[in-house]
Design goal:
The chain is α/β, with parallel strands linked by helices and 219 residues long. The protein has one domain: NAD(P)-binding Rossmann-like Domain (Rossmann fold), CATH 3.40.50. It has helices at 5-18, 40-46, 51-55, 74-84, 104-114, 126-131, 133-139, 150-163, 171-179, 186-192, 199-207; strands at residues 26-29, 32-33, 58-62, 68-69, 72-73, 94-97, 102-103, 120-121, 144-148. Strands 3-9-8 form a three-stranded parallel sheet. The chain has a two-stranded parallel sheet with strand order 1-6. Helix 5 (104-114) packs across helix 11 (199-207) and helix 8 (150-163) runs antiparallel to helix 9 (171-179). The longest helix has 14 residues, at 5-18.
């Protein structure tokens, strides 16, 4: 049984569908990313003005390399759903839809690179960052990213849930980061042609700076 309430409710919904007697196909996408999503787009906004001015160009990353993710582009998920329609072999099946494995550290660095703002990663504890803040600000290329232990993030999230109506980080989200993301997308690849593609190219499709003219055909 999953520890997070989010995943528990997902499983509960699956059980309802499975026992409903309806024809069904279940999809289990990992972290979905794409234009105006609630994760990569938010991280990107924190790395550039005006929000980066407020933080001085410094951005804490919960867990850093200790958090495992398998981000999947929204287009690949949508295509898999469409291809499942009318396929009798997909009925009653549950498909994991996962992208290539990465870490939250590498995802953050890929986001910065996609925006044309190569970041600096500092593998130091928060107290060391604070002690050397002026030197880091003067010498390092920004944004400056650094890991924050998940235990410390849990304390912050617990406090934020008590005093804020819409906390930026919740204890349930920390639980999901601790669990990491796993899955086997090979059945979806065989039957539905699921192919998430490389993460850097997927991020660049909507985060790269616009060049203008006919060469940039993004909506």
């Amino acid at each position: 049984m999953a520890a997070s309430r989010y995943h528990q409710t997902k499983w509960g919904a699956e059980e309802i569908v499975r026992h409903s007697g309806l024809a069904h196909t279940i999809f289990r996408p990992s972290l979905i990313y794409g234009k105006e999503d609630d994760f990569t787009t938010r991280l990107a906004s924190l790395m550039q003005p005006p929000l980066s001015w407020l933080s001085g160009g410094f951005l804490p990353i919960p867990g850093g390399s200790d958090v495992t993710l398998r981000p999947v582009p929204v287009r690949a998920v949508a295509e898999a759903v469409v291809r499942s329609l009318g396929q009798s072999d997909a009925l009653g099946q549950a498909f994991d839809l996962c992208g290539p494995e990465t870490t939250l550290r590498d995802l953050a660095l890929d986001i910065a690179c996609a925006m044309g703002r190569p970041a600096t990663w500092v593998e130091n504890s928060p107290e060391v960052i604070l002690a050397t803040l002026p030197w880091l600000w003067l010498t390092l290329k920004k944004p400056v990213l650094f890991p924050v232990p998940l235990k410390l993030c849990r304390l912050f999230a617990s406090l934020a849930e008590r005093i804020l109506p819409n906390p930026p980080l919740t204890t349930d989200q920390i639980l999901m980061l601790e669990e990491g993301q796993v899955g086997d997308s090979s059945p979806a690849a065989r039957l539905l042609g699921f192919h998430p593609g490389p993460l850097p190219q997927g991020l660049a499709a909507y985060l790269a700076p616009r060049e203008g003219g006919r060469a940039d055909l993004r909506p």
